[in-house]
Amino acid sequence: MSVAKKEYKRVTVKSLVDMKANEEKISMLTAYDYTMAKIVDGAGIDVILVGDSASNVMAGHETTLPITLDQMIYHASSVVRAIDRSLVVVDLPFGSYQSDPKEALRSAIRIMKESGGHAVKLEGGKEVKESIKRILNAGIPVMGHLGLTPQSIYKFGTYTVRAKEEEEAIKLKEDAKLLEKIGCFSIVLEKVPAKLAQEVAESVSIPVIGIGAGGGVDGQVLVVHDMIGMTHEFNPRFLRRYLDLYSEMTTAFQQYNKDVKSSDFPNEKEQY
Ligand code: KIV
């Protein structure tokens, strides 16, 4: 079933801006490997984010901070090999763009050259403005990320909703306008009040893609392992689980274990 207003053979950064102008919502999911990306792309999801959440989901780290540029490139190149239609956006990991704009550009170039991704995403507003400009000047599309920015978890101290206070809400609105002005093609807005998120989306012409930011924005993103229920200890209010794969996989593995132990597997038809 498709609710697309227009068919996009290949989704580009321009398609996303068109989708916003045509009031078509944008779908985005994470993927970190070939097999998952093939399914996500085949299902018609517009954008695949090779998120630095791979640090948590794939590598078991507590935060997104440890993942390296080399590891992001490995994940992204696996995803790119699977894609026919989706736009592939790759996170610049912590430490690869904050120290100076030249380093940011070098990191973004490595991602584009070595993975074949179509755009990069990085966290922050005014503080990373010069880095974003430098990357954009090299012709690399940039997606911003505001609100809860997990790479700054040690500054925030918690993963709770951001910008509930006026001062932070004002800065967020200014940052969104700034990202639009300098040329970002889109912004991820994470875990902020729905009313504020809608105001931000209405104040800019580029698409705002929310996670925990309500329905008044231009699109939605979820971490794929969360929405298919492979992770089961993470239960934020914003998460809708479409499957309970944790339970289904556990049942399958238990059955396999039983079948091997009892010599039920393989049977006669399952051998040569
Ligand atoms: O890394 C990630 O998966 C993300 C999403 C949560 C937006 O940045």
UniProtKB/TrEMBL annotation:
Residues given in the record as Mg(2+) binding sites: D52, D91, E123
Subunit structure: Homodecamer; pentamer of dimers.
Binding site for 3-methyl-2-oxobutanoate: D52, S53, D91, K121
EC number, as in UniProt: 2.1.2.11
CDD domains tied to this protein: KPHMT-like
GO molecular function, one term: methyltransferase activity
Organism of derivation: Mesonia algae
Cofactors (names): Mg(2+)
Pathway: Cofactor biosynthesis; (R)-pantothenate biosynthesis; (R)-pantoate from 3-methyl-2-oxobutanoate: step 1/2
Listed GO CC annotations: cytoplasm
One family name in Pfam for this protein: Pantoate_transf
The protein's name in its UniProt record: 3-methyl-2-oxobutanoate hydroxymethyltransferase
HAMAP family attached to this UniProt entry: PanB
UniProt record similarity statement: Belongs to the PanB family.
Subcellular compartments: Cytoplasm
Active site: E190 (proton acceptor)
Keywords: Cytoplasm, Magnesium, Metal-binding, Methyltransferase, Pantothenate biosynthesis, Transferase
